[in-house]
Design goal:
This protein is mainly α and about 400 residues long. It is built from 21 helices and no strands.
Length: about 400
């Protein structure tokens, strides 16, 4: 949760960060540069996924998780303390982009080892619910970021928020760094430490073993692409509500707060249901509902922008959309053998996020700009949901047979 808070908070303050580090002659240009820097954090995520994921398979889950957390803390502190463009000129955006890329590397190597760790410590009958805390923790992070945004916008004048208020949100994440490092140092290791010869053999065989699981990896990549587009377009709602729907900053942050809070509930509910009904039903039926509900929800929001439509509309869409992906997390990790689980999951996850998450907000901003149609985000979400539904139908059922029989 702490690590994702550090990464996600950037998107909530994209407008303020753009004015601080990327001043241009137009608001559109400033926002696009700021979002491009947000996307820069995704460029290094596959590298982090490969390096730290394989490191977790060879050396251990705990060392990999400690390293990724330390790198994330260093980069968030750098962004929070970097002077503005007006103070140090071109050095400011360069430093921020570099820090953002370190963030991406750290987060790329975070999800695989931690998801593998959760699978390995969980009792089989409750594995999906335990694994659900991975996506649920991301929602806690997004909710915390949105809550900080609501508090700052309510208590600060726009000029103060612009000049230094957004930095406070980042510093909160940095303050939590020592606690997170201490907490991870206390975790028991879940994999044995092979000797040097075995480690080298496993490393060289990592790719060949992964190839034998392409039937799972390919649809997993499609599902993660679908999920990350949905996630980052949803997180863009703060900027979308202010720039496109022209609602107040407080309401915009409140929508993110409610939406992410509801997704937290949906993530845990999805895991609980997947342990009782099996993985595939919990993936397919909620994903189909998401496909059917997306356009009507956006139509309501665009034609009647306000607290009711934004909070109720996105709230409903958020909980339905969260259900299938926790079941998927359990399915994908269960389908992979332990000695390649961390590396493969991290790499596939990071590639999907880098390719589609890093560009999602840029694509939506561009679509809104060139079409002038406020329904443009719905089109992108519909495409993503359709691809995800097809891929979910191709995934195997990995729930323990005994539990499925009881259900």
């Amino acid at each position: 949760m702490l690590e994702f808070y550090d990464f996600i908070t950037y998107s909530f303050f994209a407008i303020q960060i753009g004015h601080t580090f990327f001043p241009t002659a137009s608001e559109y240009g400033t926002l696009m540069l700021s979002l491009a820097t947000f996307g820069a954090g995704f460029v290094t995520r596959p590298i982090g996924g490969i390096v730290l994921g394989i490191y977790s398979d060879r050396i251990g889950r705990r060392p990999a998780m400690l390293l990724s957390f330390a790198l994330m803390g260093l980069s968030i502190l750098t962004i929070a303390l970097t002077p503005s463009y007006q103070s140090i000129g071109l050095a400011a955006p360069i430093i921020v982009i570099a820090a953002r890329m370190v963030q991406g590397f750290a987060l790329g190597g975070e999800v695989g080892p931690t998801t593998a760790y959760l699978v390995e410590i969980a009792p089989p009958a409750h594995r999906a619910l335990v694994v659900a805390w991975q996506p649920a923790s991301q929602e806690i992070a997004a909710t915390a970021g949105a809550l900080v945004g609501v508090i700052l916008t309510k208590t600060m004048a726009p000029e103060m928020l612009q000049s230094h208020g957004w930095r406070l949100a980042f510093l909160i994440g940095a303050v939590c760094l020592p606690f997170g490092l201490w907490m991870r140092r206390t975790l028991p290791e879940t994999i044995s430490h092979p000797d040097a010869g075995t480690a080298v053999k496993e490393s060289t065989g990592h790719l060949s073993q992964a190839r034998r699981h392409l039937g799972v990896i390919a649809p997993a990549l499609m599902i993660l692409a679908s999920g990350t587009i949905s996630t980052y377009v949803t997180q863009y709602i703060t900027t979308y509500a202010q720039n496109t729907l022209h609602v107040s900053s407080t309401l915009a942050f409140a929508v993110s707060l409610v939406s992410n809070g509801i997704q937290f509930v949906g993530a845990l509910l999805g895991g609980w249901l997947a342990d009782r009904l099996g993985r595939k039903p919990v993936m397919i039926w909620p994903q189909l509902a998401t496909l059917l509900l997306t356009y009507p929800t956006f139509l309501w929001i665009v034609h009647a922008p306000g607290a009711l439509s934004l909070l109720a509309g996105f709230g409903m869409l958020s909980i339905v959309a969260a259900l299938p992906f926790t079941a998927f997390y359990a399915t994908f990790t269960e389908a992979l053998p332990q000695n390649i689980r961390g590396g493969v999951f991290a790499t596939v996850y990071a590639v999907a996020i880098a390719s589609f998450g890093g560009t999602a907000q840029l694509v939506v901003t561009w679509l809104l700009h060139v079409t002038g149609n406020p329904l443009a985000p719905a089109w992108y979400l519909l495409l993503a949901a359709g691809v995800g539904l097809v891929a979910m139908s191709l995934m195997p059922e990995t729930a323990p047979v005994k539990r499925r029989g009881q259900a």
